[in-house]
């Protein structure tokens, strides 16, 4: 049941979109089709990811006030009440970013899965009105064979992942008073941020190299799109802050 829903709602539409793009791109360059399809999906998800990034940015702006509440000496119940009032005043939902990311995960994973399984349009998944492309060229721009492992693309995938983590709004760390032990949530958040920035890029590069150049190309395109979006959000927030 779940597999049928997965195929019908996510996998097949993306595979058919890829087949259509390959059929209309001169020379049937699959690499260009991968880039275009990835960009189309990212544009479709733009409103969701935009809200997620903006939510994190808003949390960072409120970090100093959250720190004052924590260091104010009030009881846990009073701190929770003040924190809730602060979120309400600034119209911030601390969980909205997580929820929006969770909504995007199935779509992004389905797109990744299309490239992970290999570019094959003869498995009976194409719609009746989408024909198998006459020309399927796996040599991206006549230079790189994306059907095989590609070290240059894998390295670029890792670098792009680092850039994406670097420009991502940093978590709003609420530092504990001197002499006190950081809470589990604080330690976990800092640890995750460090791993996402310095360790995950190597993981991405390894996976991209282990599978194919098509997966690496998808990762590069997706990460660079996110970098541009994060820079846009940061500049927009700075502009609004100056106006205020």
TrEMBL record:
This is Membrane insertase YidC/Oxa/ALB C-terminal domain-containing protein. It comes from Candidatus Nomurabacteria bacterium RIFCSPHIGHO2_01_FULL_42_15. It is a multi-pass membrane protein. GO terms for cellular component: plasma membrane. Keywords: Cell membrane, Chaperone, Membrane, Protein transport, Transmembrane, Transmembrane helix, Transport. The lineage of its organism: Bacteria, Candidatus Nomuraibacteriota. Pfam families: 60KD_IMP. Coiled coil: none annotated. CDD domains: 5TM_YidC_Alb3. InterPro entries: YidC/ALB3/OXA1/COX18 (IPR001708), YidC/Oxa/ALB_C (IPR028055), YidC_ALB_C (IPR047196). Belongs to the OXA1/ALB3/YidC family. The chain crosses the membrane at residues 20-45, 95-116, 136-159, 198-220. The keyword Isomerase does not apply. It is found in: Cell membrane; Membrane. Residues 31-235 form the Membrane insertase YidC/Oxa/ALB C-terminal domain. GO terms for biological process: protein insertion into membrane; protein transport. One of its GO terms (molecular function) is membrane insertase activity.
């Amino acid at each position: 049941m779940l597999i049928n829903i997965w195929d019908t709602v996510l996998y097949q539409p993306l595979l058919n979109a890829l087949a259509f793009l390959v059929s209309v791109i001169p020379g049937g360059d699959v690499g260009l089709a991968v880039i275009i399809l990835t960009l189309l999906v990212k544009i479709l998800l733009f409103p969701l990811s935009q809200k997620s990034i903006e939510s994190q940015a808003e949390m960072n702006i409120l970090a100093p006030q959250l720190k004052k509440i924590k260091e104010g000496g009030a009881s846990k119940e009073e701190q929770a009440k003040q924190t809730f009032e602060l979120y309400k005043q600034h119209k911030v939902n601390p969980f909205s970013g997580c929820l929006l990311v969770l909504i995007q995960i199935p779509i992004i994973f389905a797109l990744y899965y299309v490239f992970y399984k290999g570019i094959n349009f003869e498995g009976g998944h194409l719609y009746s009105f989408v024909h198998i492309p006459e020309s399927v060229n796996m040599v991206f721009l006549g230079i790189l064979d994306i059907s095989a492992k590609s070290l240059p693309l894998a390295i670029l995938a890792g670098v792009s992942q680092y850039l994406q983590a670097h420009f991502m709004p940093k978590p709003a760390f609420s530092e504990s008073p001197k002499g006190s032990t950081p809470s589990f949530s604080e330690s976990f958040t800092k640890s995750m941020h460090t791993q996402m920035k310095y360790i995950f890029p190597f993981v991405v590069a390894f996976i991209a190299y282990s599978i194919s150049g098509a997966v690496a190309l998808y990762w590069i395109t997706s990460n660079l799109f996110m970098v541009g979006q994060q820079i846009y959000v940061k500049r927009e927030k700075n502009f609004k802050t100056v106006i205020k």
